[in-house]
Amino acid sequence: MAVDTPKAGTPASDQEWMFLEMDIRDLFTAGPIDEEALFAGRATQIKQLFEATLERSRHAVLFGERGVGKTSLANVFWRRFSKRLQTIIAARIQADPSDDFSSLWSKALRELRAAAISAGKSELVPLSDTLNILSPDDVRIELQKCKPNSIPILIIDEFDKLENTYAVSLTANVIKSLADYSARCTIIVVGVAENLSDLIKEHASIKRCVLQIPLPRMNDFELKEIIESRLALTPLEIDPHALAKIVNLSRGLPYYVHTLAKFASISAADERRLKIIESDVDRAMDTFIGDMAESFYDDYDKATASNQPGNLFKQVLLACALAETDEKGFFRPSAVAAPLSKILRKQVTVSAFQRHLVEFISEERGGILIQRGEERQHRYRFNEPMIQPYVIIKGMRDGMIPDQSRANRPAAKRVS
Fold first, then answer.
1. Could you give the CA distance from residue 375 to residue 187 in angstroms, rounded to a whole number?
2. Do the beta carbons of residue 242 and residue 277 sit within 8 Å?
3. Measured between alpha carbons, how far is 133 from 104 in angstroms, rounded to an integer?
4. Domain 219-292 listed as CATH 1.10.8.60
């Protein structure tokens, strides 16, 4: 195989190639992004969050499927403006299942105070170092100490994990109280949910003072931007077909873009090439299935296991993963028929797999799908979105769908 013509920055020794691989692993981290310069896409949501931050008495709720990048967005949206607005002080905490109202908000206020001290701006947020938080008023009175020229932001992540319903209700009261008193602090609640009421049961009381920001899966342009923005910091480039393949396999989830692009980049570097090609993506898929998918295999096996010869559970689940969806990841049964027909190489109708969909939402098969809508209007979605690309990658590596028969991911359509 021919090696690409060397260009500026081309590694000249084994040690330099090793350093390049280290850079690749650092750039394509699959964890939450905390460097604003490396965060691609989500311009609309960043603008919405910042508008809520600047508008007094306004707060925000950021929600969506697991794995779409909510934590990353919450981590970085304010960094884009922090040099110009130097009084921004942002703190983030994670809600814990064991938290009650007092522990949650004591933790939040301590973190905000620590962030101000760390930034050398403790005079802007002069919060008490000893706290006794018992009620929403205690939180509001403490936050009213923030100076008028300060821009404090408190991010409460993984709010859906909070099991104490009283703490959820009182947190809604905190947001309402801060809005009523025009306190100088923006609360941003982040969690896995389909809508505001899934996340905050007392949503009616705070609807007027919170900006609801649903975070859908990333579109193809945003996914490509993630890859290209990182490769621009290395001497590597990527073949358009390889780029399209990574984007298509990722199904809108940034975790898979990071993971597949990282393994594909390392594959190219291992062969001392500066261009990432499709065979690198193929090797990345093998690496992912072999090394990174242990957490998905048990769920996949439970959903598809059967002693019945000729059963179609693996094929139907793969067709579900390939089905055209709306912007929230839901698909109708009719959308499964086309990919399943290609997989089986014969025309099928919904009646051929309706039983499988019913089983996929059952506990016996791990509830791998969830169902919404009235009878005859049912829609389905993977309960754990992160397993959907795994099902596709495994289907390809197991030969259920050859590359040449795999269509590009269709644009999401709104389901009425």
1. 39
2. yes
3. 9
4. yes
Domain ranges of the chain: 42-214, 219-292, 295-405
The third-level CATH classification (topology) of the domain covering 42-214 is Rossmann fold (3.40.50)
User: Is there a shared CATH topology between the 42-214 domain and the 219-292 domain?
Assistant: no
Tokens of 137: 């008023």
Share of the chain above pLDDT 90, in %: 62
Tell me the β-bridge partners of 212: 61
Do 222 and 42 meet the contact criterion of CB atoms below 8 Å apart? yes
> Taking each helix axis from N to C terminus, what angle separates 278-287 and 254-270, rounded to the nearest 10 degrees?
110
Residue listed under structure tokens 């992912």: 288
Q: What's the rounded Cα separation, in Å, for the pair 164 and 167?
A: 5
The CB-based long-range contact list for 308-312 (8 Å cut-off, 24+ gap) reads 312/344, 312/352, 312/353, 312/356
Given the structure tokens 């621009």, which residue do they identify? 232
Cβ contacts of residue 284 below 8 Å, gap of 6+? 246, 259, 260, 261, 262, 263, 264, 267
Q: pLDDT tens digits for 183-229?
A: 989 999 999 998 888 888 766 778 889 999 999 888 898 899 889 98
pLDDT in tens, 106-130: 999 999 999 999 999 999 999 988 8
- DSSP per-residue string spanning 328-341: TS-B-THHHHHHHH
Note the pLDDT of residue 295. Answer: 76
Q: Is the pTM of this model over 0.90?
A: no
- The answer to whether 213 and 81 have CB atoms below 8 angstroms apart is no
- Check residue 24 and give its pLDDT: 93
The three-class DSSP label of residue 202 is coil
Can you say whether the dihedral through the CA atoms of 107, 55, 144, 113 is positive or negative? positive
Select from 355, 328, 327, 352 the least CA-distant residue to 338.
352
- Residue 414 burial class via C-beta count within 10 angstroms: exposed 0-12, middle 13-18, buried 19 and up: exposed
The CATH number for 295-405, chosen from 1.25.40, 3.40.190, 1.10.10, 1.10.1760, is 1.10.10
CA–CA dist 331, 355 (Å, integer):
16
Distance of alpha carbon 169 from alpha carbon 148, whole angstroms: 28
Write phi, then psi, for 135 (nearest 5 degrees): -145, 165
Tokens of 271: 């062969």
In whole angstroms, how far apart are CA 214 and each of 45, 220, 379?
Answer: 8, 18, 19
Contact (CB, 8 A) for 77 and 49: yes
Dump pLDDT digits (tens) for 151-184: 999 999 999 999 999 999 999 999 999 999 999 8
